[in-house]
Design brief:
By secondary structure, this protein is mainly alpha-helical. The chain has one domain. It is built from 7 helices and no strands.
Amino acid sequence: MTKMTDWMRVATTKEQFELAKRAKTSRQYLYVLSNDRSPNTREAQPGLAARIEKGSEALRLKNPKLPVLLRTDLNQDCRNCEYAKACQGAKL
């Protein structure tokens, strides 16, 4: 199960639409990113991963029960980025 899958399961429909709006994507595409059972599972592009991270961070201020979503959870290039790792070290 992916972090995005967890987030979509906990979030309300309203929160899902709000994240899509903040990330400049659609709720349907968030579901595509969260579909961990598909052989064609997609990763968010780095820019989208960053917008999802920022949007989910803002929504967590309103609902602390929402799981943390980091760009490194959503994109392989971000997982390998030394700067993202350094920033996450500061956050965690």
